[in-house]
Specification:
heterodimer; A: 176 residues; mainly alpha; Arp2/3 complex 21 kDa subunit ARPC3; 80% helix; globular; B: 129 residues; alpha+beta; mini-chromosome maintenance (MCM) complex, domain 2; 2 domains; 4-stranded antiparallel sheet; 3-stranded antiparallel sheet; 7 strands; rod-shaped
Chain lengths: 176, 129
């Protein structure tokens, strides 16, 4: 791994931790509605620098955020880890298997969907162990995830364009 | 960066995926409400001890013996009421049918509550991220 990659991963992870922290400060109308702002960083990393930096950024973000919020290594940490890893894998698969088919918006929707399904699955095994409440909440979470995924994907698209544009006009500033 | 330009950059697959997810989740909300029973439980307590745990969606009448006599509880159409009570002021009977909350008869020490997920007492209270 090049040292430039390391700086990039460190910087992007810091952004992701920052966004994650900011998000936890936002008041939420529904307790389990989260915007998943950190996924913006994962998606940008994935589309600009590839899978390995993206999964690194996700792992670092999950670990550091859980240490900050005190959820390590409880069920909330496992839910966060599972959701983060599976959604990154899903987005990377969609990106490489159907190259050019989805834009950042589509990938973000895929990421949000897999993130939520993984968390519901893990929540069933780790926290609730009853199928009815999970079934009830699944479509609702799917709906919210689709909406927040749309917003995050749009933001990612804008940021990626901006980075690409500034990298073309000024090659020195292409560090992300 | 105009919004139209951004909309242009989303692919057809994006739009299909978005509509599919929206359709799936919206129909899921209604389908699951229709097919999965909500699993409410009627809990009848006497002297703070549960004596009956009954499903809310099964109609029936039960009675419990309190210090003053028999209190009769009726379940019908997903609602509960205290049908008859030996107490003097009959506040509990006057409360009528309820779908949520509780019916209380203090003189006869009977409390009827509608509960959800009583088996585990678990709720989703973890902060995830």
């Amino acid at each position: 791994m090049l040292s430039q990659d390391k700086y990039r991963i460190a910087l992007l992870s810091a952004y992701a931790v920052g966004l994650h922290g900011l998000e936890s400060l936002l008041p939420s109308p529904v307790p389990w509605l989260k915007f998943g702002l950190a996924n913006i960083i994962t998606l940008i990393t994935l589309m600009l620098y590839g899978f390995r930096p993206a999964i690194m950024v996700t792992l670092i973000r999950v670990l550091i955020s859980s240490l900050f919020t005190g959820t390590f290594p409880g069920p909330a940490f496992l839910l966060s880890l599972g959701g983060g890893v599976v959604s990154t894998l899903a987005m990377a698969t969609a990106l490489s298997a159907f190259r050019g088919l989805f834009s950042a918006v589509g990938l973000s929707l895929i990421g949000a969907f897999f993130h939520n399904m993984t968390q519901l699955f893990l929540a069933y095994f780790l926290l609730i162990r009853r199928i009815e409440p999970i079934l009830f909440i699944t479509p609702l979470i799917m709906l919210l995830g689709t909406l927040t995924g749309l917003v995050n994907g749009t933001v990612s698209e804008l940021v990626i364009r901006h980075i690409k544009k500034s990298a073309i006009t000024d090659p020195a500033s292409g560090t992300g | 960066m105009s919004l139209r330009k951004l909309l242009h950059s989303t692919t057809i697959a994006d739009k299909v995926l978005f509509s599919l997810l929206l359709l799936l989740s919206l129909s899921g909300i209604f389908l699951i409400k229709a097919f999965v029973p909500e699993g409410h439980t009627v809990v009848i307590e006497l002297d703070n001890k549960p004596v009956y745990l009954l499903p809310l969606d099964k109609d029936g009448i039960v009675s419990v013996d309190g210090p003053l006599g028999k209190t009769t509880v009726e379940i019908k159409d997903n609602s509960v009421r205290i049908q008859d009570s030996p107490c003097r002021n009959k506040l509990c009977v006057r409360q009528g049918w309820i779908k949520t909350g509780a019916l209380v008869c203090l003189p006869n020490r009977v409390v009827v509550t509608i509960d959800r997920g009583r088996e585990t007492g678990n709720t989703i209270d973890a902060v995830t991220g």
